[in-house]
Design a protein that fits this description.
By secondary structure, the protein is an alpha/beta fold. 58% of the residues lie in helices and 12% in strands. The chain has one domain (7-180). The two termini are 40 Å apart.
């Protein structure tokens, strides 16, 4: 199989396919979680690749494991794992926007109350530096109450969207298995 110019490679070499997955996970092989180190390696490498190119994951493993169930289910296991993580990250993004909308409602309400309070303070307090301090304090409080919702809508969602997109790219990655011959035992 030839590589296309629009494809980036991630290559792994393992002594046993099962070492890619969390060994204490009781689920069937294709539903298991990836081992933390394997996930960090794959995701870290994928982060460095161009976002507009497809990903191909090549797993080098001992020839003796070529006919195992783990080898046959490896592509589906990767696809399921990264797809589940993409969906979980999408749920996190939706939750973040829900919190942002609620925070914005509270923030706007506080801003309106503070603007009214500043206006009332300017009407009832005599002209003095204290009056100016009260007015400015209400205005600052009103805008500070909107800090978090603005932060959510302007900045916080972007890393989640990037991570979700990366997991989607990894879920769509082609997985190629490349068995290698077993090493001959070294003798005296």
């Amino acid at each position: 199989m030839t590589e296309t110019a629009s494809e980036d490679l991630i290559e792994l070499r393992v002594d046993n396919i099962a070492q890619l997955f969390h060994t204490l996970d009781p689920f069937p092989f294709r539903e298991r979680d990836l081992d933390k180190e394997a996930e960090e390696f794959i995701v870290g490498w994928a982060r460095e690749l161009a976002a507009d190119r497809t990903i191909k994951i090549i797993v080098h493993f001992p020839e003796a494991e070529a006919q195992t169930k783990a080898a046959r289910e490896l592509e589906e296991a990767f696809r399921r794992y990264f797809s589940d993580h993409a969906n979980a990250t999408q749920r996190e993004t939706k939750e973040l926007f829900r919190i942002g909308r609620r925070s914005l409602g509270i923030g706007v309400t506080i801003l309106i109350a503070c603007l009214l309070s500043a206006h009332l303070a300017s009407g009832y307090l005599v002209e003095s530096p204290f009056r100016r301090l009260v007015e400015e304090s209400f205005l600052i409080l009103g805008w500070v109450a909107n800090w978090r919702p603005l932060e959510i809508f302007l900045y916080d969602w972007l890393p989640l969207a990037r991570r979700r997109d990366l997991y989607r790219r990894l879920a769509a990655a082609t997985v190629e298995l490349r068995p290698y011959p077993a090493r001959a035992p070294s003798g005296p």
